[in-house]
Amino acid sequence: MIADLSGGKFTDFAVISYSEVEEISLKIGEQTAEIDKNGFVINGGNLGGLVKINELTSKLNDLVRAFNTHVHPVTAVGTPTGTIAIPAQSFRSSDYENKEVKH
Fold it and tell me: Cα-Cα-Cα-Cα dihedral of 65, 101, 24, 8, to 10°?
């Protein structure tokens, strides 16, 4: 149950009673959020599910390790050893984590 606190203008409401909440919808400017028994949908959900940042970083670094153990040196003229082997760098979640959105 909601109460119209704006005197009939329908601009200011307050929740005064509820039995069970089935869904919550929120809109601030162009940003939206919907919450129900199936989960959360932010801004329409068009970008897919949220990334599990630690699991992603771990899998990316597994790939980096596998790559780095299979790098074949390339012969290069003018280098002291005659070969160049440039390993891939490890990933850090801070490079791509948005700390303003957490779950």
Answer: -160
In a domain, 103, yes or no: no
pLDDT per residue as tens digits for the range 50-79: 888 999 999 999 999 998 888 666 666 666
- Residues pairing with 66 in the sheet: none
Which has the closest alpha carbon to 93: 48, 49, 60?
A: 60
Q: How many domains does the chain have?
A: 2
User: Is 11 found in the same domain as 35?
Assistant: yes
Q: Copy the structure tokens of residue 74.
A: 């390339």
Tell whether 66 and 38 lie within a shared domain. Answer: no
Query: Residue 23 is inside which H or E element, if any?
Result: strand 23-28
